[in-house]
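We modelled the chain as a single entity of 512 amino acids. Its sequence is:
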Amino acid sequence: MKQKIVCLGGGYVTIYVVRALRRAIRRGELEVVIIDRNNYHVFHGLVAEVLTGKLSPGDIVSPARKVFKGLEFHNAEIESIDFSGQKVHTTRSIDGDRSEVAYDHLVISLGSKDDLGKYPGVSENTFRLKAYADVVALKYHIISLFEYASIEDDPEERREMLTFVIAGGNYAGIEVATELAEYADDLTTHYFPQIDRSEVNIEVIHSGNYILPELGERFPKLIKYAQKKIRQANIEVHYDERIASATPVSARTNKGLEIPTRTIISCVGNAQSPLFDQWDFTRHDSGRLLTDEYFRLQGQENLWAGGDCAAAPDPNGGFCPPLAIYAMTAGSTIGKNILRSIRTQTLSRYRFTGLGDACSLANRRAVAQLYGIPFSGFFAWMAWRFFMVRYLPIWDKKIRTLFDWCIWPWVGRDIASIQSNKQLQLKELYFEPGQDVVTEGEDGNTMFIIYDGTADVYQGNKKLKSLSRGDYFGELTVLGGGKRSETVRAHTNLKLIEIRKQIVHRLKQALE
């Protein structure tokens, strides 16, 4: 009877599982079903170039129906798994309708998600780079701040708008920082003559004592080269510090450094799927599922896991790092071992010991190592580009990316800022004790509802009253116009819901 393999998640592990099984699928030996909440695959290696307008946002997104052409794909949320009955229970987001999918072998490749509990304010006041929608929102946010700063007279607000804080000195953080620096050079030279390049500040907060920890201590020359290029780009790196809290107008570190900014980009902190909390399988300290050297969950015969969500033994020692190349090779091994298991053959151990990696530093420079051989500069940058194109899962996106790379130096970057119905969205905010939410005398276009913490209301230096959970403020200025008559200051850690003027007026009309 035909065996049914169900893959949870449509990332690199699943892509390479399918490639390993393709011949058996064509012969009719197997049936493969992929389940993912998104009907697309996002390639994160080129996010920095999307943020800065070199590449179109669509270049890094591959439709699942093209990636898994000819296979059964379910665009659904995974609700739960009945391991004894070998069934996956799903729901569809449009109406919550439930369905179930039976399996003979289950591949768990759910990747990782942003750790929103990393520090206070991370969910309300930072930009993350895991979700495609967040990447696009950040791209438009960055160019919008240059637009606003170009006509802003208040030096304090202007400084906040033109300061960009990146949490993390890893590959992702350094690529974003260096691309932003090059972007700022281009914008201030060609598009925003009102802004001097020296006004743009890019600051990296890094918890280690050297950047690019993925290189370890094996390649000190590469790290030194990267540090040199970062200094030349006027990027400031704060070593041995981490973000302690984030507010709408500042980032605070664990050493007390406070940086006024409207943009905090979090490149650190991964969490696992909440589904894992429903299961009794052994997990690593990081929360990842522990597997054996064949990528089976420990003690299981037909449950497999790979990629960011799995802690699989690395042949070099320790566990496989959460890198794309390891997800690809894990997928190939899982696919081959599923076939071997079905055919009652001996399983293959995971033997991949690494190929190499690279980190772009913008301006056609990079650091790279290939089979342990380090190199830097232009040729490293070319190697980085080769890796990036190779990792794109379909030819459509490879060609589009190559085309955009060829034309952007001639036609310029995409610097449009598209703000889709942002004015009609509710927003959660976080403030620390002593920070002003609104200030007496300023224009008021928003009202606020407190859902955690307390705040004090002042007129001048006189305290008028205190506010707590469920209280709201700012509505009179929004409805009546004019300036705010009071200052509202956070007394404790304060979480708010911000409601913009357009929504307030609609609510008023609906209730009249």
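As a brief sanity check on the tokenised model: Residues 359 and 367 are 5 Å apart (CA to CA). The longest helix spans residues 171-190.
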